[in-house]
Amino acid sequence: MGEGAPGYEANGQAAEVPYLPRLADAPLAELLTGVSAVLVTGPRATGKTTTARRLAAEVIELDRPGAAAAFIADPDAALRGRAEPCLLDEWQAVPSVLGAVKRAVDRDPRPGRFILTGSVRADLDGALWPGTGRLIRLPMSVLTERECRGGDLGAAGFVERLARLDSGIDAGGGQPAFDVVDYVGMALRGGFPDVVSSTSGRIRLAWLHSYVDQLVTRDAIEVVNRVQSELVREYLAALALNTAGLVSDLSLSEAVGINARTARRYDSLMEDLGVCSRVPAWSTNRLARLSKRGKRYLADAGLAAAAGNFDSGTVLADGDLLGRVIDTFVYAQLAPEAALAVQPIRLHHLRTEHGRQEIDLIAELPGGRVVGIEVKAAAAVARSDARHLSWLRDQLGDRFLAGAVLHTGPDCFELGERIIAAPVSAIWG
User: Fold this and answer.
1) How many other CB atoms are there within 10 angstroms of residue 17's CB atom?
2) Strand-pair partners of 281
3) Residue at 186 is within a domain
């Protein structure tokens, strides 16, 4: 949440909101002491610019025509003599600025020269991308509950604590116990800074629905020409209703009434805009017959609710949707911690070909060691809920560090050797 960013008082009037520290603050500051340029990526409106501004000596908003004009005409000349670190905000508005940054860094590789922020990553994977080895990418996401609640952002993340099975895994650090209704409320509120800062449910919903509208009518067209906004909207809705799922490409295309090629195009579009992530299937030479299909997550459960047109009542009345929402909420807490760890942690999922064993998230640490996480939208957890984690432990031996069944009840307890049950709140507790 940005310094000076608008929040809302109880009467709906705008109010100033102080800066809420982010998980990315310390990594960004440290990177600028050793590398010339850092590229901060993530979905629109997640606070990238606000965070980067705090470290920038000069800010250039490239999505403003007046500021962009000089960079369009001659990006190399426009970069010269700027105060450093120089923040180039919304770089994708003038893609040629990437080449200018590359050339500037080649000439003078001093650390801390440039910060770039942007909400589109399509050009980073194509022919326009000249920054390999010169720009370090730093991902940002929606706010986690750990950030929202002012937790210790310098402490180890949940996966790292779970890997040690240390005393840091408890029932939420002395916080009040939450139940499934509380978790659904947190999830559907969403983690975008503008909605977290609002105390009005009407304003939050209006903001999220407006975000979806802008995503499908403006942002999508800026990335891919000749897309049909209503079909993009329907595809996003299908993704929302199947978030945290292994739905096939064919099923999604049939749900929207588009061909497979168009569906792949829209799928890439959602990933390029940062609103959908595909968690790859985990593989190892110790296990055979594992599914290779990726698992899709929308970046934010609140966004999923707006795109899929469902509310808390709908979720609580539909067991399948409830499981997807809680799973998506958990992923939104763990993914930023994993991406920003000193040694990045890779997140996967596991499913055998016939679905006999399935684990929601596999966190792979250095050396091929793993942590397994199951998510249950239930308050009561038994040993049988850990059977797939137990199977993985027995298959991997010492490579399996620990496992957890995250649930919506209040208690933390053992389920077996190196496997515990813990409330979802233990992630930020």
Assistant:
1) 19
2) 349
3) yes
pLDDT tens across 120-157, in order?
Answer: 765 544 444 455 567 899 999 999 999 999 999 999 99
**316 and 264 both lie in a single domain:** yes
Average pLDDT on 152-178 reads 78
Query: What is the C-alpha separation between 222 and 46, in angstroms, rounded?
Result: 19
Contact call for residues 282 and 348 (beta carbons, < 8 A): yes
**Residue type at 302?**
G
What is the average pLDDT across 401-427? Answer: 96
Are 178 and 291 members of one domain?
Answer: yes
* Alpha-carbon gap, residue 266 to 248, rounded angstroms: 14
Token couple for 75: 């990006």
pLDDT at residue 5 in the model: 39
| DSSP string for 232-249 | HHHHHHHHHHTTTB---H
Phi/psi at 393 (5° precision): -55, -45
CB 141 within 8 A of CB 336: yes
Domain co-membership, 296 together with 418: yes
Q: Is the pLDDT of residue 10 over 80?
A: no
Q: Which domain holds residue 390?
A: 145-427
CATH number reported for the structural domain that contains residue 120 in this entry = 3.40.50.300
- Residue 375 in this model has a pLDDT that exceeds 50: yes
395 and 357 in a common domain: yes
Which tens digits make up the pLDDT trace of 26-64? Answer: 999 999 999 999 999 999 999 999 999 999 999 999 999
State the average pLDDT for the chain.
Answer: 90
